[in-house]
Give the backbone structure.
Amino acid sequence: MGERFVAAARLLPDYLGQHVLLSAAALGLGFLISLPLVVVASRNARIRWPVLGFASIVQTVPSLALLALFYPLLLAISTLWQHLFGYGFSALGFLPSLLALTLYSMLPILRNGVTGLTNLDPAVIEAARGVGMTNRQRLLRIELPLAAPVLMAGVRTAAVWVIGGATLSTPVGQTSLGNYIFSGLQVEDWVSVLFGCLAAVALALIADQLLGLIEIGVATRRPKVAWMGLGVLLAGVGAAGVGSLAAAGEAAYIVGAKNFAEQYILSAVMADRIRTEGSAATARVDLGSVIAFRALASNGIDAYVDYSGTVWTTIMNRRDSLPRQQMLQEMTTRLRKDHGVVLLGALGFENAYALAMRRERAEQLGIRTIADLSQHAPQLRIGGDFEFFARSEWQALRDRYDLRFREQRQFQPTFLYKAVASKEVDVISAASSDGRIRAYDLVVLEDPEQVIPPYDAIVLLSPARAADPVLRKALQPLVGAVPIDLMRQANYMVDRDSGRISPSQAAHWLEDQLHLK
Amino acid sequence: MRVHHALVEANSIHCRPDPHRSVHRMIAFEGVSKSFDEGRDFAVRDVSFSVASRAFVALVGDSGSGKTTLLKMINRLIEPDQGTVKVAGESVQAMAGYSLRRKIGYVFQGIGLFPHMSVGENIGITPLLLGWPQADIDARTGELIDLVELPRSYLARMPSELSGGQRQRVGVARALAARPSIMLMDEPFGALDPVTRDTLGSEYRRLHDNMGLTTVMVTHDVMEAVLLGDRIIVVRQGEIVADGEPHELFNAHHPDAGVRALMDMPRRQAERVRILMQERTARG
């Protein structure tokens, strides 16, 4: 408990700093875009309803979906940009998070601003015209100052929403306090989850209070109070910037990771290897499966571990299956040609999608292979991770073995194993390198028709780092060096229920076993 | 210098319109019409009249008669559909609405003091918009707070700290700040209690005379019009139905029955007061 708390606290300057910077940028941008819209919309009823309507619709989109949608949009724009101007930009991380949260912040500012400006005392407006103010003078001297308290209340609401929403930017590759929550959820580190929640809540409360100070200062016409609130707020943002810069150091290399224990461990091992070669490295974790590859292809990250079957089906869109070596060879060529990505080599173990059942249940029904499963499927329930049922492997399995289950449910990988162990579901999509298969006494069903392609763990390098000597020197020793049993053990150390250790501790253990230190 | 100016103003007390000094037509309406529903109904229909410099004209009529529309066309808060409104011989369209309004004082029932500005800032707003130096603005607001008979300490107060009558005193001071020669007043004292209303009305009449102003005041209260105005214009359904000095409208044989009915009320009130006064004298 204490140890994990310390581990979480050590990450705080980086996570909090980036969270603050992202939230402040989104709120600031949202305010700057909203203010002219507020003025135009309050003076013209025909524009008012479309503007407020659009903002309301944006608000009803779940914030995670909004973040997710900005990624492909930016990717398309970046690709176009690349074609037109010869250079692209990262569609991952800060930019999509900033844009989504900016949109998200606009509704309360727009709504309060328009309410504030349209509900002013008509006599005051008539007097402003009567004394000879121009439209601009009326706006700046009378309308905005009088509507400012209501507008500021909207900014406060927006700030709380943005700070909460920013925790969801982790899956699109932006570091935030959400990293505590997403990683903690993956490896069942509730200290980390709680730490992230409390930090986000505290941040929202503090920001709300400081903005409240500005609001009071504006409402009661005490400029000193307003300036004090603004000053402390800006000082906080500045400190966050310095903090996150200091934490980031000059990370020369960024190693990516998807959102499960094995990926956390391997990214930590790779970052350690780069540091051993004398360069700074940092890990960017919790990337979505395809997002990780896109990030690599656009040089957003420098290296990560993927699985041959995943790349084969989701990136290369192949439906056929080739023998292992042939597949790796073809993949090496195609990735290089189509994406400029280098396949450095396979680590030496496989982490395949597999179907698993409790041993007792499988024996009771006499199921050994997926083919045996088809006749029992209508009485059984299957659980999968969030990707599984959308993947072509599942479609291929379902069609080839004619699988029609009674019920189909989705779980976080963490809860997936618990769900099958507690008999909530009968069959799950499991990863063959997962330590929990043995721990929960599950059996992996055979795939007699070899529908599922090989899933060798492979190291991929970004186009920009294709020939980077440091990176190659650091990562080459891992190729062919990681056996399945060691990987399973390391995974289990992070995933098990009691006596769990952190991914970086597991990485150190693995490095010891591999004599890499 | 300013003290001297104020003394000159004070010396001209009770000075009624001076034909030798006046621009004959300070304000002129020439065939002016206005409709708010694209010509189905007219708020103002083909109205022509003029107001001499230094005159105090009361526009009287029921609500919806068009009197406020007429008033607001003078400072372009409302634009006419047809015809021309002239101020000092020039069409009001010749200059931007806001610069026209900086030259014309405007006081209305809603008062509309700016709640986030002090009394002093409210009074000094038009001079500020005109770019006066701050020292001149301060001197002028001091003069004006004296003129409307409020203590100087009130300059630092906020409008919310004032009574209704005090607020309208500030409203009048604000309208006078940039030394306009024309004052437009739309039911200026309509929301005040009768005593305050009477006091403010007669005080304003004195200011009007002292400063040589030209005033057009809209009111639905005939008594107020009779007591303050040199000339009364009766408006009904967008047209002028009577126009004359108060004593002319009291003529029992006025051709318009509406005007006769309108003037009957002050006549009856005055009659009743006269009888009461006689009784008091007889008993005393």
In short: The first strand of chain B starts at residue 27 and ends at 34.
